[in-house]
């Protein structure tokens, strides 16, 4: 029994690890049918969507149905940092902007980049007008943790009973990582940049200052001469809305984590949750399944 339990626990953890790092199933169509993490014939699932063990050697646990009523952002403070965008390095700055940091190494130096505030999901429809996509990306089936399908609905029909945020299609963290890459001349995968490196001195002396001509094109209704202001406005702000969309809060949090090459859930904590569930210490499998679902849903959304 102990061997069978360890093997099944390892299987669940393996499936979770795959989902936390990439999409489960082949996007070309070789993966599980429909929009479920595993098909209904798999030993881990009942047809009614309840997650169960396989075999007769398991303890008689009082396992809860596999519903997704939990909020990952409420359960895990590291998952969703703010109400408008999920980015671990994002911090409150003032009422008009926030900030992210560029972290240079050898020697250690940091540069703060101001980020304009995006509208809240509650005001997105009014703020967006014709500029912002007037739909929200949400789970097709809200309370089934096995179903990762993402659909988009009109904003006025999408927000009832759901936690929605305004999502930057291009994550804000992309800009600090880009500037750090310019300094080293090496891409995240290790390959050298064909364009070569740009010294941090050049960046730090120009990126946050009015170094552009006065006649540069308008972005967000303003003719910014600061490179950082122009880039951040183009990514999305309350004045520049075309690259913002409304999305499910958990989906947004998982996307930010994956974009940063991080696991949505710490793997040691994920493994502990699986083992605790198998040992009947917790009854709700959503504590770990919901992270798998959110990670898989990111790829459906993108």
Q: How would you describe this protein?
A:
- With 302 residues, the chain is of the alpha+beta class.
- It folds into 2 domains: 2-74 and 263-301, no CATH class; 82-259, no CATH class.
- It contains 10 helices and 7 strands.
- A 4-stranded mixed sheet has the order 5-4-7-6. The protein has a 3-stranded antiparallel sheet with strand order 1-2-3, with helices on one face.
- Strand 1 (91-92) and strand 2 form a beta hairpin.
- Helix 1 packs parallel to helix 10 (286-301) and helix 8 (249-259) packs across helix 10 (286-301).
- The longest helix has 20 residues, at 2-21.
- The chain is globular, with a radius of gyration of 22 Å.
- Keywords: Signal.
Strand content: 5-15%
Classification by helices and strands: alpha+beta
Shape: globular
Order of helices and strands: HHEEEHEEHEHHHEHHH
For the biggest β-sheet, the strand order reads 5-4-7-6
Helical content (DSSP H or I, runs of 4+):
25-40%
Topology:
Elements: H1 2-21, H2 72-75, E1 91-92, E2 97-104, E3 109-116, H3 124-128, E4 135-139, E5 150-154, H4 155-158, E6 164-168, H5 174-184, H6 200-206, H7 227-235, E7 244-248, H8 249-259, H9 267-278, H10 286-301
Parallel strand pairs: 4-7
Antiparallel strand pairs: 1-2, 2-3, 4-5, 6-7
Provide a concise account of the structure shown.
Keywords: Signal. The chain is an alpha+beta fold.
Q: Can you give keywords for this protein?
A:
single chain, 302 residues, alpha+beta, 2 domains, four-stranded mixed β-sheet, three-stranded antiparallel β-sheet, 33% helix, 13% strand, globular
């Amino acid at each position: 029994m102990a061997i069978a339990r360890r093997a099944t626990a390892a299987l669940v953890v393996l499936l979770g690890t795959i989902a936390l790092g990439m999409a489960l199933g082949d996007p070309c169509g070789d993966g599980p049918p429909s929009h479920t993490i595993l098909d209904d014939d798999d030993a881990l699932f009942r047809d009614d969507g309840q997650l169960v063990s396989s075999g007769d050697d398991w303890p008689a646990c009082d396992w809860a149905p596999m519903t997704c009523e939990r909020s990952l952002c409420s359960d895990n403070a590291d998952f969703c940092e703010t109400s408008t965008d999920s980015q671990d390095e994002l911090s409150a700055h003032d009422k008009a902007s926030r900030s992210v940091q560029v972290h240079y190494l050898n020697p250690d130096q940091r540069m703060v980049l101001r980020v304009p505030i995006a509208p809240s999901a509650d005001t997105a429809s009014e703020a967006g007008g014709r500029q912002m996509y007037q739909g929200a990306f949400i789970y097709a089936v809200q309370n089934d943790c096995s179903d990762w399908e993402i659909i988009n609905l009109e904003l006025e029909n999408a927000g009832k009973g759901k936690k929605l945020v305004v999502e930057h299609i291009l994550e804000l963290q992309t800009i600090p990582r880009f500037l750090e890459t310019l300094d080293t001349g090496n891409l995240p995968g290790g390959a050298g940049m064909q364009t070569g490196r740009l010294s941090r001195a050049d960046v730090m002396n120009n990126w946050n200052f009015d170094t552009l001509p006065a006649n540069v094109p308008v972005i967000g209704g303003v003719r910014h001469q600061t490179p950082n202001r122009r880039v951040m406005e183009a990514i999305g702000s309350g004045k520049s809305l075309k690259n913002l969309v409304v999305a499910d809060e958990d989906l947004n949090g998982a996307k930010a984590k994956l974009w940063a090459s991080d696991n949505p859930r710490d793997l040691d904590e994920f493994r502990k949750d699986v083992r605790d569930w198998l040992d009947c210490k917790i009854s709700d499998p959503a504590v770990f399944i919901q992270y798998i679902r959110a990670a898989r849903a990111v790829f459906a959304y993108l």
